[in-house]
């Protein structure tokens, strides 16, 4: 459905501590195997060690890894060496000024950065799908401070995505809860979302 309405990438959400859209790995494998070559298949992972991420990518067969938390074991170079040709996208949860420094420090090692509204310091981590926006002026500063593409996420919906694109100027936008009704993808919301994105 997402591809039908114009998505150039599909986010496949593996096990997360919280948030909507999680699907089991068998389903991820099935979807990744039929995504057209012109559409990127993003595996959203909460794993924090490179060995687990590498193993998960090999199981799932996706072409992009979206690291939703911070790496605690191993390095981005370890991922590059083990997964040649697989794109690496690091999520930075925009909470304040420190997010600019975090994005600048990680940018040289990844193919893109995704700016979201999670919170890694809560007792149950929020690694995405919160439905909350964040301070877009910080996202714009990050976009102006790094040399890699920026994806913008966090509370985007058909009602605010045009404003977000105007203010931040991202390479792309990422949506989850903003195009769902009762937890399921909503075709009408998707259509409206893409029509708003298409004007920019």
CATH architecture classification name = Alpha-Beta Barrel
Main beta-sheet strand count, sense and barrel state: 7 strands, parallel
The neighbouring-strand order within the major sheet is 1-2-3-4-5-6-7
Task: Tell me the span between the first and last alpha carbons.
Answer: 22 Å
Structural class: alpha/beta
- Count of helical segments? 8
CATH class equals Alpha Beta
In CATH, the homologous superfamily goes by the name: Aldolase class I
Q: Any idea what the shape is?
A: globular
Number of strands: 9
Counting copies of identical and different chains, the oligomeric state is single chain
The percentage helix is: 25-40%
Mean pLDDT: 92
- CATH topology: the name is TIM Barrel
């Amino acid at each position: 459905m997402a591809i039908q309405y114009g998505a150039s990438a599909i986010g496949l959400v593996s096990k997360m501590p919280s948030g909507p859209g999680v699907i089991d790995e068998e389903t991820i494998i099935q979807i990744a195997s039929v995504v057209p070559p012109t559409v990127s298949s993003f595996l959203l992972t909460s794993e924090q060690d490179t060995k687990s991420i590498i193993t998960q990518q090999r199981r799932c067969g996706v072409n992009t890894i979206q690291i939703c938390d911070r790496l605690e074991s191993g390095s981005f170079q370890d991922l590059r060496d083990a997964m040649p040709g697989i794109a690496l996208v690091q999520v930075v949860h925009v909470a304040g000024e420190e997010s600019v420094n975090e994005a600048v420090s990680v940018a040289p090692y990844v193919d893109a950065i995704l700016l979201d509204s999670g919170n890694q310091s809560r007792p149950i981590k929020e690694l995405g799908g919160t439905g909350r926006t964040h301070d877009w002026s910080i996202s714009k500063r990050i976009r102006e401070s790094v040399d890699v593409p920026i994806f913008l996420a966090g509370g985007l919906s058909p009602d605010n995505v045009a404003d977000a694109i105007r203010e931040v100027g991202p390479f792309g936008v990422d949506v989850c809860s903003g195009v769902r009704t009762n937890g399921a993808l909503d075709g009408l919301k998707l259509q409206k979302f893409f029509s708003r994105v298409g004007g920019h």
